[in-house]
Amino acid sequence: MESMLIVGLGSIGRRHARVFRAAGIRNIAGADLREDRRAQAQREIGITDLGADYREMLKRQKFDAVLVTLPTAYHMAVAHAAAEAGCNLFIEKPVAAVSDGLDEVERLVAKRGLVAYTAYCYRFAPSAERMKEIVDSGRLGRILCARLKISTYLPDWHPWEDYRSFYMARLDQGGGARLDESHGIDLLRWMFGEVKSVYALVDKVSDLEIEADDLATMILRFKSGVVGEAHFDLLGRAARVDAELIGANGTLLWDRISGKIEVYDAATKKWDVEDFGRDSFVTCYDRQAAHFIECVRARSTPRITLADGRKTLDLLTAALESSKSGRVVEL
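Now predict its structure.
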């Protein structure tokens, strides 16, 4: 893979530009409707091939891959155009806000033999990989239940801009806790398999001046028998990203922010601690980029496929349906 077009030059688009350039991709172009973001990408990263219209850029040059990093509601339109142009896809999470258009993108990807990756980068964090290893090893025994929390205060996300103008504040752009913090759903699916049913509350409960939900809490019953709780909010004044897994033989505590895993062994009645360090998480972006590049070059199936992105989106959609109906929704 030698070239890519990044569509959406906000903070995550520029982060990916830096990461992929460091990974050896020299031919990086960028598209964004906002002139200030195009200028920022040129000033900070040195991208010179810039434009406002990604469709025009796709017409004049064949890119090996397109990175879809604009607000969630616009993912499918860009992915469809890129797949039609024969470009491999790197789609920021969640794969879309609604499933409209996803069938056609999947059809084009299959027809043209493209690599399509959904960017749930948490799976590449060293501490998360270790948590998965421990679960799979059977060290905890049969997993009975799991709790996962992602809690951050929206105005603190981008202190350089008014949070009310950030896409996360807007329903029409696919913002809100339910969609954006869906890393947690992908992690739970990765560890425990597919979900059988969900009961959820999705709401705006704070005084934040936003249209989107700031709280999404879900009770999940997995086909494997595990009962899960997923809590996402845009309210926590002290950021928290953590999980507790309770097994028949022990308990595991995972803290993404500190990089620590603590495991309690019921037989020895002792805690073992593994500390990956607070800075370990950011390496997930580099490892994710290397994985995507290798998949494109080898024409291999990525760790997180378009189908994975769809399954997580289906669950998020069912959670919204459950919240509106007040009933358990079967998947």
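Residues 131 and 180 are 22 Å apart (CA to CA).
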